[in-house]
Amino acid sequence: MDGQPDGSPGYGGTLMRIVIMAVGSRGDVAPYTGLGVRLLQEGHQVTLATHALFEPLVRSRGLDFHRLPLDTREELTARLAARGPRSPLRVTLAVNQVVADHARPLADAMLAAAREADALLLTPAGWIGGHVAEGLGRPSMGVYLQPMTPTRAFPPATVTTRSLGGWANRRAAVALRTLGQQPFRQAVDGLRHDLGLPPVRPGAWLARLDAGRWPICYGYSPAVVPPPADWPRWHRTVGYWWPAPDPAYTPAPELADFLAAGPPPVYLGFGSLPMADRDALSALIRAALRTSGHRAVVNTGWAGLHPMGDDILTVSEVPHDWLFPRTAAVVHHAGAGTTAAGLRAGVPAVPVPCMVDQPFWARRLERLGVTPGAIPFRRLSADRLAAALTEATANPGYRERAAGVAARLAHEDGAAGVLPVLAELTRG
């Protein structure tokens, strides 16, 4: 990030050098390419600080890249796949521990990225950048893909979909935020010492952010998750940040030929979900498709799926915004990004949630009426999957409702919603 950016001022303010700190899997990074490109179009200089695994993704979209340590694919696969499905809370804490084990190298890399920045945008797993911002005197804000602000309206999105009651929902979210920071205490204390800051307990630091009206923009649609009435006005739901399209993408000939050779296929993919037994899951998918009679495009993903059959095409890294509108239905793990892509395409869904916030998004799809129902991953069987695919594609109501949601999303501009918040932030 050498030098000052050139061009005319962006939305209501001065051109800035902006760093987005994105920690996690591909679904935790890709939406910020879209947000970053929009900020770039406003004249700002934008760096996406994330893992080396995603450097080609970032640079191909015209954004600057700063490397953060941690191979999330390797770590999540090694630690989670072998243990099999567990409760969302246990998995959430396990994922948090993966990041915590690399907290100090992550903090040092964030510090290096932030030194030349004018403002920091922090993702949920990149929250440690808040201490960096404090130490360097840089303005910062949250840019989140799932609801994190405590509320009475629903329980913590990464723990359960079952309401605990208004008071307990809110208290559980407050407790989870504090609990999630405990494994980072030693790294945070060392970072703050190096920055000349006094130590601070996690709960006290979070309370300070709340009292200081630290802004957060949520990158999903209010049509999907209506903003709770008890959220502060500086926590705003602005709409989805769609991943920036690959300007060089053209479909492989075998994919184009497969799509043209018959009726729209169904899509099956589980994204960055680690998998202990890819052979068993591949066989299950093959059996379900044989029973339902559907053609299918299957994304290998981090699970390494490899179902075989005349009417099954296995692919990798096909842009959802290109592929999903050409399908009859999408079967996925209900990650935030894949859920959003399916809604944008206006196609029915069969969510198969496993961990973290996936059950939350699966429940949202049910409430929108675009799915015959979620199948928790631990209960997935060939018969259940075949029945869900048959219902999702045979009942026109699911596609009609999905098309209605897609029409609403088409009128939203989530990236634009960040611009006035950023302008207010940097005006101090």
From TrEMBL:
GO biological process: carbohydrate metabolic process; vancomycin biosynthetic process
Domain of life from the UniProt record: Bacteria
Domain Glycosyltransferase family 28 N-terminal as annotated: residue spans: 18-154
Presence of the UniProt keyword Transferase in the record: yes
InterPro entries in the cross-refs: EryCIII-like_C (IPR010610), Glycosyltransferase_28 (IPR050426), GlycoTrans_28_N (IPR004276), UDP_glucos_trans (IPR002213)
The keyword tRNA processing is assigned to this record: no
Residues of the Erythromycin biosynthesis protein CIII-like C-terminal domain: 306-422
Protein name: Glycosyl transferase
Species whose genome carries this gene: Actinoplanes nipponensis
